[in-house]
């Protein structure tokens, strides 16, 4: 088992682009995989969780020169936590651990349990959301899908930026860039297993 670790700098922003012609194909921080092969030009891995589960792909090295190769992945075992987010719909507050955050949420957002899935990388995001010198977060383009078993709406997300209908939004203009970075790291270090599939965490809306 290997874990994608070396991507949380400002350049990678929590994502690794494998060798692929698909411009939407990115792996998020702490994705778990199995190493199949490594050679002078790339590593071949099998992804074992997330949006590209069971894909066998080639990924570049973080550093490669004549003397050594340095991988984006680590072999050191990572112990994941089980996190639950509580969302007070009336007060528009979100609780994660001992921290409480003010969020924006639509009035028709249903109460109940949601699964927080592996993030998608949002393309065409306003660049100011990523600028950490101006209240942004390097992880602003990571949007977490919210899944409810009795809904077919696949457009609910937990995300940073502007208020989006049907989503749980951390507003850019509310000085929450550092909060969003903390939440990204916290969620990516979390796993729950449901019906042989891994998700990041659970959200309870009340």
List the helices and strands and how they pair.
Blueprint: E1 2-4, E2 15-16, E3 27-28, E4 32-38, E5 43-47, E6 56-59, E7 63-64, E8 69-70, E9 73-74, E10 83-88, E11 93-96, E12 99-102, E13 104-105, E14 112-116, E15 120-121, E16 142-147, E17 157-161, E18 168-171, H1 177-188, E19 192-194, E20 197-199, E21 201-205
Parallel strand pairs: 10-21, 17-18
Antiparallel strand pairs: 1-4, 1-9, 2-3, 4-5, 5-6, 7-8, 10-11, 11-12, 13-18, 14-16, 14-21, 15-16, 16-17, 19-20
What does it look like?
The chain is mostly beta strands and about 210 residues long. It folds into 2 domains: about 1-75, no CATH class; about 85-205, L,D-transpeptidase catalytic domain-like (Beta Barrel). Helices cover about 5% and strands about 40% of the residues. It contains 1 helix and 21 strands. The protein has one helix at about 175-190; strands at about 1-5, 15, 25-30, 30-40, 45, 55-60, 65, 70, 75, 85-90, 95, 100, 105, 110-115, 120, 140-145, 155-160, 170, 190-195, 195-200, 200-205. Strands 10, 11, 12, 13, 14, 15, 16, 17, 18 and 21 form a 10-stranded mixed β-sheet that branches. A 5-stranded antiparallel β-sheet has the order 6-5-4-1-9, with no helix packed on it. Strands 2-3 form a two-stranded antiparallel ribbon. Strand 10 and strand 11 form a beta hairpin. The longest helix has 12 residues, at about 175-190. It is globular and about 60 Å long. The relative contact order is 0.18.
